[in-house]
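Duplicate of #3305? Posting structure anyway:
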C-alpha cells in the first residue's frame, strides 16, 4: 500500500524524534526470519527499552539527517531493521547478538554510537558495555577501595600488637 505524503512526513518526524533521544543505533537485515521469531525479538526489545522499527531506506535517511546517526546513511541498502537503544547504549546490540546466535538468516549491517559508524564486527564491543547500574557499582567499588585499604592498614597495627602480646603470654605460660 502506498504511503501518502502526510504519512511519510509523520514517519520521518517520529523516527527523527526517536533518534534525537537515542543512545545508539543498530541496523540489521531480518530477511528469512519467521513472524514468530520477529515477534519474540520485538518483545525482547520492548522489555529492554529498545525502539525497533522497519522504515523505508529513503525515509530513514531523511529522518536521520541532523542527528548523531546521519553517519549510518551508507548502511541503508536492502531491507533495514532499526533498533534505537533508549536507556542503555548496549541494549540493542545485546538483543541482536542473542537473536543472531539462534537465527542464521539474521544479519547485523551496522552500528552507530555518538556519530561514529561501526561495522558489524563491533557488535560484541557494544554488547559488552556495562548497563548503568553495573557502571555505577564498578565506580563505587573503585571509589571505596582506597578507604577500605586505609582502614585495613590502620586496623593491622593494634592487631599485630595483640598477637605479639598473646604470643608472649603463651610463651610465659609454657615456661
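Output from current build:
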Amino acid at each position: 500500500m502506498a504511503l501518502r505524503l502526510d504519512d511519510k512526513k509523520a514517519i520521518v518526524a517520529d523516527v527523527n524524534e526517536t533518534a534525537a533521544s537515542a543512545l545508539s543505533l543498530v541496523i540489521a537485515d531480518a530477511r528469512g526470519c519467521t513472524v514468530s521469531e520477529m515477534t519474540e525479538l520485538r518483545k525482547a526489545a520492548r522489555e529492554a527499552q529498545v525502539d525497533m522499527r522497519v522504515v523505508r531506506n529513503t525515509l530513514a535517511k531523511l529522518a536521520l539527517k541532523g542527528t548523531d546517526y546521519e553517519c549510518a546513511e551508507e548502511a541503508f541498502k536492502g531491507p533495514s531493521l532499526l533498533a534505537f537503544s533508549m536507556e542503555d547504549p548496549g541494549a540493542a546490540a545485546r538483543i541482536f547478538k542473542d537473536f543472531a546466535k539462534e537465527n542464521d538468516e539474521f544479519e547485523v549491517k551496522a552500528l552507530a554510537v555518538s556519530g561514529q559508524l561501526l561495522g558489524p564486527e563491533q557488535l560484541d564491543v557494544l554488547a559488552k558495555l556495562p548497563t548503568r547500574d553495573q557502571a555505577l557499582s564498578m565506580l563505587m567499588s573503585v571509589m571505596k577501595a582506597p578507604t577500605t585499604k586505609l582502614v585495613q592498614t590502620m586496623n593491622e597495627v593494634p592487631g599485630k600488637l595483640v598477637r605479639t602480646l598473646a604470643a608472649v603470654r603463651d610463651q610465659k605460660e609454657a615456661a
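Confirmed duplicate; merging threads. The radius of gyration is 27 Å. The chain has a mean pLDDT of 86.
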